[in-house]
Specification:
Length: 270
């Protein structure tokens, strides 16, 4: 049996961070060796298990990513764009697999992450669930099969604490639809409608964002033409699906060559 994969969780106090820690403690192929939080966070110096309200796990929450990531084989990262860029440099130096679920990154952020991928395995995805990635694959196929007489609208809903819009998953779906249509998403997307907007531009891909309560994540891709509509839909009710996908990606990336990958590669959907 292979040695346990040594994993560091960033943003350990967050929703995804705690979900990841809980799953790792029950995983028979992965070992938690580090938990990171920003400086002056109230959990710094505490055992992560105790900080989460449970039993001690023998891993102290740290503010020192250089020290913690140096001992890791994989870093699982659902934080902020600026933090993720810095973690990508450290993961590259440690030759650790970097699993990135962070969304809302700029083109400059993505260029820096691409540079890090020359030295380490990076798996980056706006969504790491199996169901969503199947939805992405289906969206591409349906968009290719239906011509521009079918308008494409992507509707996403998330909890009221989400800070970016459209969601990373919505953008994944938009890119898949654009690829299926062989068009540029940057040139064809419609992000906001307010006031007298005029008629919908033919061939555009529209986005609508909903924020409320504790919605984990819901995504619909609507293909609408005169007389008929087709909707592809995914509804997440448990944050564990994203964490399980991230752990699967970390194990998958263990023996891969440096480069930037996504969940389509991990799941063999391409």
């Amino acid at each position: 049996m292979a040695d346990l994969l040594k994993v560091v969780v960033t943003g350990a106090s967050g929703r995804m961070g705690q979900t990841l820690v809980n799953l790792i403690t029950r995983h028979n192929e992965i070992e938690l060796v580090g938990a990171l939080e920003h400086p002056k966070h109230q959990w710094i110096g505490q055992d992560i298990g105790v900080a989460m309200g449970g039993s001690a796990l023998g891993v102290v929450v740290s503010e020192d990513p250089i020290k913690v990531i140096a001992n890791a084989e994989a870093v699982i990262d659902f934080t902020t764009p600026s933090a993720t860029v810095e973690f990508s440099k450290l993961a590259a130096q440690a030759r650790a697999v970097h699993i990135i679920g962070t969304t809302g990154m700029s083109e400059d952020d993505l260029e820096r992450i691409e540079a890090a991928s020359f030295h380490s395995v990076i798996v980056r995805a706006g969504n790491m669930s199996l169901g969503v990635n199947l939805l992405v694959a289906l969206t591409k196929k349906v968009a290719a099969a239906l011509d521009s007489e079918f308008d494409i609208e992507i509707i996403e809903a998330h909890h009221n604490q989400k800070v970016d819009a459209p969601s990373g998953t919505a953008l994944m779906l938009g890119k898949a639809a654009a690829k299926g249509r062989d068009i540029s998403l940057a040139k064809s997307s419609e992000r906001g409608r307010d006031g007298i907007t005029g008629a919908r531009e033919k061939g555009s891909i529209g986005f609508a964002s909903i924020r409320g309560g504790d919605i984990v994540g819901k995504h619909d891709v609507l293909f609408a033409s005169s007389g008929e509509q087709l909707t592809l839909s995914h509804n997440a009710t448990d944050r564990n699906i994203f964490a399980r996908g991230a752990l699967k990606a970390a194990l998958w990336g263990r023996d891969k060559e440096p480069g930037e990958y996504d969940m389509m590669d991990v799941l063999g959907l391409e």
